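Issue: copy button drops trailing tokens. Both records pasted manually instead:
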Amino acid sequence: MTAPVEDLRTIAAAFHGTVLEDHPVEEGIGDTVIVDEVDPGRLLDAWRAARAATPTTGRYPVFTLPGDLHHEPMPAEIDDLARAARAVDPWAVFRRHRDDRPMEPWRIESYVSAFLGAEGLSSAAGPPPAPTSEPELDRWLYDTLLADPALADHARRYYEPLVGTRTWHPVREVQLVLLPTASPWLAPAWISYFGAARPGGPEAWAAAMRQWHQRWGAELVAAFSTTLHLVVSRQPQPGPPAWELAGQLLAVGGSLQHAQWQLAMAVARSDAWFLHDRP
């Protein structure tokens, strides 16, 4: 199925007066429409312009790398994905590897001191539990920071860089893909992500994005093969909601090199997420 010339003209007209004005608008595979010659340095501005035009175009925008669009889903396939997004438990598919072995006392002290400092460790409300595993220690550290604003401020340099778009990977060239759907979570029907390359992965990825969209207003901005860029309109409250969300992001972004406490501190303040999973 291809986009009629009239549709291409309507889409181009919808971008009048925006950063996408006069950009080439062409048909792509799988009933998609491609907007070319977008400046990667204005990625978010261009995406917002295309997203604001969705009521007119009926299409959800996602950036990909040029030529990185290979699948032409059949209507039945899209319908199946839509059903799966509502029914699948994504956290049965996306699971994190966690080392639950007890840590040696010197490792516990070294880990906590690295983030809190020796003085911070001595002033914390109660010592870290021992023996304890790394996941348990992460949670203790997170709860300790929430309970002590001074310690949280001391550790700010370890999580502040994760707030906003600062972790988004820059790319040299992009193409803006307008999907023939207004639902952000159906992007996996056309677009791939390495982290979802597993049995049931695309369905779980769609289900996760649908959950995040409903709860946090999360929307996919870019899918660059091994990385995902998202914006959000609502942040979780510090505590269990932020901790749970951080664990979910680490499960989908299996190559992120952050502790869960760092990401939990960040997502409670951030209007953007970055996920990364590579071979």
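Record 2 (pasted manually too):
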Amino acid sequence: MDKKFTTPKGFGEILDHTFQLTKNRFKDLFMILLIFMGPVYLLQAILQLSSGTSFFREVGSGGVWFEQILSSFEETGTFDSSSLGADIGLIVIGLVSAILAPVAEAAILFTINHVRKNEVYTVSSVIKQAFSRFWPMIGSSILFFLITVGVIIIPLGIVGVVGGVVATKVNMVLGILLGVVLFLGFALGIGLLLTRWSFYFGSVVLDKDSPGLGRSWRLSRKRTWALMGLYIVFYFIISSISFGVQMTFGIVLGNSVLLTLSSNLVTLVTTMIFSVGYGVMYLDLKTRHDADDLKEMLDDYKTL
């Protein structure tokens, strides 16, 4: 057993362990994501080329080069084509990505678990393990998606109705302020709820507990704020990297196929970071939970 996984970690230790694992296992993790998402990104590039997008540099109308670059995003977009084929292709890519992405993440979770146990593995072996949990993953992910939609839509409806009634019946400014306060409160509550349920995926993959929502709720007990904080930090890291690449390469390449390919490669890296971080967070929760269970067993034994 890897000693780094045997003790509970603090906020900074989880981040540090995440980047160490990403660095040390970069080749295997990147290969997993490339196997699953590489063909999807290639299909996306082919569809862009078939819709008339330039491979190296896409520019639009305008007087100076900066205006031409900006107009290329407005005129072409990622798939700027009136053809039905391009639209269908975009839908197919989205559906395929939604199916393959969870399998890739599951393979990464199995990889991290093998590292935790100091077990030998291959890329092909963890992919096979991931596919063995395919249907439980898909079913649980659909359930989590539906719950997420419900948790978000209902509070938004309440905010809209209450804020609108107060604004029209009492005072416009008061209605707006009340709507903002309610929105922020609901947003915080939704974030905490989804954080507590979000570790269903690790439960389904590693512990074979479907749909895993109950186990996720138990594991994340007393750690919700720290976990949500980690999610926020990972979001800002990933967003900063993606934004920096988009801005840097976009200035030179415009909205070209090469820019899309470059952005997709960066997406593989950021997805890898988040997946490893998720795995470290989940295994840390398991370590804490197992330790608490052992402590309770010892306490019960002492009272006998």
